[in-house]
Amino acid sequence: MSAANNFRRTLPALFLLCFLSLFSGVYTDELQILLKLKSTLLQNSDTHVFNSWEPTRPFCEFDGITCNSDGSVTVIELSHKNLSGFLPLDSICQLQSLEKLSLGFNTLHGTIMEDLRNCTKLKYLDLGNNIFNGPVPDMTSLGDLQYLSLNNSGFSGIFPWKSIVNMTGLIRLSLGDNPFEPVPFPQEVVKLKKLNWLYLSNCRMEGTIPAEIGDLTELINFEISDNNMSGEIPKEIGKLKKLWQFELYNNSFTGKLPFGLRNLTNLEYFDASMNNIEGDLSEVRFLTNLVSLQLFSNNLSGQIPAELGEFKQLVNLSLYANNLTGPLPQNIGSWAEFNFIDVSENFLTGPIPPNMCKRGR
Ligand SMILES: *[C@@H]1O[C@H](CO)[C@@H](O)[C@H](O)[C@H]1NC(C)=O
Ligand SMILES: *[C@@H]1O[C@H](CO)[C@@H](O)[C@H](O)[C@H]1NC(C)=O
Ligand SMILES: *[C@@H]1O[C@H](CO)[C@@H](O)[C@H](O)[C@H]1NC(C)=O
Ligand SMILES: *[C@@H]1O[C@H](CO)[C@@H](O)[C@H](O)[C@H]1NC(C)=O
Ligand SMILES: *[C@@H]1O[C@H](CO)[C@@H](O)[C@H](O)[C@H]1NC(C)=O
Ligand SMILES: *[C@@H]1O[C@H](CO)[C@@H](O)[C@H](O)[C@H]1NC(C)=O
Ligand SMILES: *[C@@H]1O[C@H](CO)[C@@H](O)[C@H](O)[C@H]1NC(C)=O
Ligand SMILES: *[C@@H]1O[C@H](CO)[C@@H](O)[C@H](O)[C@H]1NC(C)=O
Ligand SMILES: *[C@@H]1O[C@H](CO)[C@@H](O)[C@H](O)[C@H]1NC(C)=O
Ligand SMILES: *[C@@H]1O[C@H](CO)[C@@H](O)[C@H](O)[C@H]1NC(C)=O
């Protein structure tokens, strides 16, 4: 057989081989990426999660890994797994189909580098509750994100607020409990019309809540406590009809509880304690689903509305250190398993409600 003949016969085979390895190459790479993740984190972690991460097994069957029908990794779910060490995002973000990266509640450390930019398919990113440091890098290329949790994770510097403008599908934004540089409440946030969860407590927010907050009509949770915010609570808050929890304690808010608050009839948890809020409690009369009402250490005056005595779910009530007058509603505590009441340091008069402790809680 001539060399030419031989070549002609092996060419298709060679071609096929190249073709195949081109495909399986992607998967070999994905296996290598996962094994690198394992070896990087295993050195420092006391975890069992990598026991199933053996090269002899299909990596789509590794604990915490999910693949699409093409056999490419879409999900890394390794939250609450005792993971410590430095996160090799440079290789993780080479996973072409990665949509969910969930690493919350571990002790991962180090700085999050620009490598994150290559994770362009991500819809879900949770790096919260770790011990990272340094700033959060630009994330403009992560325009598909729907869930972003970076709370309580040691991030500092100025958060890249411009990046979130591109995340028009964002549903959840949790950035609280990080020592960021002080900034005014970012206007970029009120453009995210699909947000239903906004957690910005204890992350050095300043300035006022913009009136446009009323555009975020999907919000069910809005938390901005333990910051240095001031000004009045905008009346546009009244447009957030789905709001279930509203927490703004320990700031310097002034003015009255806004006219319109009364419309938040789905509100169950409301805490505006430790501010300089004045005026009376008349707006609260309509919030019949309240479970917990905390307004202590303000400058509220007038009487406690009789309607509070009829709130069927109310179990916690803290109104101490205000200027309230008159009697307590006599039915208070007779409906639900009343848990906590403190109305001290006011100018209240009249009898103690007779049924307040009848459920023995
Ligand atoms: C994490 O550590 C705890 C206590 O050491 C252990 O009980 C648990 O199984 C560990 N979890 C994993 C996923 O390894
Ligand atoms: C993104 O990945 C490419 C290779 O696919 C690499 O050349 C580039 O440096 C990466 N960019 C960042 C910011 O990591
Ligand atoms: C903080 O982040 C964790 C995930 O790391 C998330 O489950 C939790 O809901 C976040 N907390 C708030 C108040 O958003
Ligand atoms: C914004 O996100 C889209 C994907 O949703 C992306 O195509 C675009 O490049 C992003 N813009 C910037 C400035 O990165
Ligand atoms: C109030 O918030 C500040 C941060 O703005 C914090 O340092 C302080 O401990 C908080 N006070 C209380 C009583 O929680
Ligand atoms: C709070 O914000 C005001 C400006 O509104 C500023 O003067 C003050 O220094 C800030 N306080 C803290 C503790 O950052
Ligand atoms: C409360 O909601 C009703 C019905 O949507 C609306 O007509 C009214 O203007 C709202 N009131 C305030 C004070 O926002
Ligand atoms: C409380 O309100 C009263 C009456 O509006 C006002 O005179 C007083 O200065 C306020 N006190 C504080 C601590 O804001
Ligand atoms: C109660 O009101 C008086 C006068 O209206 C005011 O001087 C005082 O500061 C108020 N107390 C509180 C706790 O705001
Ligand atoms: C009521 O307050 C108590 C004591 O602060 C707390 O332990 C409990 O979880 C609260 N219950 C609700 C439903 O908020």
From TrEMBL:
Segments forming domain Leucine-rich repeat-containing N-terminal plant-type: 29-68
GO biological process: defense response; post-embryonic development; response to other organism
Membrane topology (UniProt): Single-pass membrane protein
UniProt keyword annotations, A-Z: ATP-binding, Glycoprotein, Leucine-rich repeat, Membrane, Nucleotide-binding, Repeat, Signal, Transmembrane, Transmembrane helix
Signal peptide positions on this chain: 1-28
Cellular location(s): Membrane
SUPFAM superfamilies recorded: L domain-like
InterPro entries for the chain: Leu-rich_rpt, LRR_dom_sf, LRR_N_plant-typ
Major location (coarse): membrane
Pfam families reported in the protein's UniProt record: LRR_1, LRRNT_2
GO cellular component term, pick one: membrane
GO molecular-function terms, A-Z: ATP binding
Source organism superkingdom: Eukaryota
The name this protein goes by in its record: Leucine-rich repeat-containing N-terminal plant-type domain-containing protein
Taxonomic source organism: Rhamnella rubrinervis
